[in-house]
Amino acid sequence: MERAADRVVVTGASSGIGAEVVRGFAALGWEVVAVARREDRLAALAAETGAMPIVCDVTDEEQVAAMAARVAETGGATALVNNAGGALGTDSVETSSNDEWRWMFEVNVIGLRTVTAALLPVLRAGARRTGWASIMNVTSTAGHDAYAGGGGYNAAKFAAHAVTDVLRLELAGEPIRVMEIAPGLVHTEEFTLKRLRGDAEAAAKPYADVLPLTAGDVAAVIVGAFRQPPNVNQDLIVIRPVAQSSVFHVHRGPLEPRG
Ligand SMILES: NC(=O)c1ccc[n+]([C@@H]2O[C@H](COP(=O)([O-])OP(=O)(O)OC[C@H]3O[C@@H](n4cnc5c(N)ncnc54)[C@H](OP(=O)(O)O)[C@@H]3O)[C@@H](O)[C@H]2O)c1
């Protein structure tokens, strides 16, 4: 069992990495607030883990303010995982749609900023109570290496990376650590399916004949970062499957020692 005061808010909790982060913290006895738009999924996760569900669209300032107020009223928080996000499309800069770019900026960048700004006073109160608070932003290796067809997703995740660094500078002197995790190829149920507009056959291809990361692999590293001593700030964690040696190199087939 962890310290009784630990309470974490996880956005994008209704599927994939976020849901596994909720499970990981709940298994350690942390209080968890699970935030996403799909009420039915949050209710199922709440029944399974004991997390408190809050239905909230992170791109809607009023909903985010209401979410933060509810977190404050129900026990506050000492930790935040900004995980809500996603990609739309793989079209070129020339041919992609501004609507898709706007969606990606709204959720991956502006949503992250809105949630962080709304919860900072709550986290500060948590830090006064317990001595510390922590923020983890889930970006992507797409926020560090550009690739053809990455367009709006690259741009949004590069921006989320920049926002994380700015925040760390701005919070200097406070007992609030600001961390980033940049995952590579993770096989989650919905991420690529949504990106490829529901084309299941195309969505299966990136994961064919390769052992990718699972949502549980990423969640374990996220949860582990929060369990480090509070003076330890893992500024940037890059996590890829062994079979992916860079954003451009995925080894398909079995991994075998040479020689
Ligand atoms: N899968 C990968 O290969 C991969 C790699 C690197 C980084 N990432 C990043 O990891 C994070 C999680 O991805 P995932 O693979 O777990 O994908 P996912 O299963 O599609 O999860 C995305 C989550 O974000 C939530 N969300 C989306 N828009 C939202 C909004 N406006 N307000 C509130 N919640 C919103 C979704 O819930 P609702 O629809 O219920 O709101 C869902 O719970 C994302 O930031 C993604 O960019 C993924």
Keywords:
single chain; 259 residues; alpha/beta; Rossmann fold; seven-stranded parallel β-sheet; two-stranded parallel ribbon; 11 strands; binds NADP nicotinamide-adenine-dinucleotide phosphate
Please give the structural blueprint.
Blueprint: E1 7-11, H1 16-27, E2 31-36, H2 39-49, E3 52-55, H3 61-73, E4 79-82, H4 98-130, E5 133-138, H5 151-170, E6 176-183, E7 186-187, H6 191-195, H7 200-204, E8 213-214, H8 215-226, E9 236-239, E10 244-246, E11 249-250
Helix pairs in contact: 1-8, 3-4, 4-5
This protein binds NADP nicotinamide-adenine-dinucleotide phosphate.
What would you say this structure looks like, in words?
With 259 residues, the protein is of the alpha/beta class. It has a single domain, classed as Rossmann fold. The protein contains eight helices and eleven strands. The strands form three sheets. The chain has a seven-stranded parallel β-sheet, with helices on both faces. The mean pLDDT is 97. NADP nicotinamide-adenine-dinucleotide phosphate (NAP) is lined by residues 11-18, 36-38, 41, 57-59, 83-86, 107, 111, 138, 140, 183, 185-186, 188, 190-191, 194, 215.
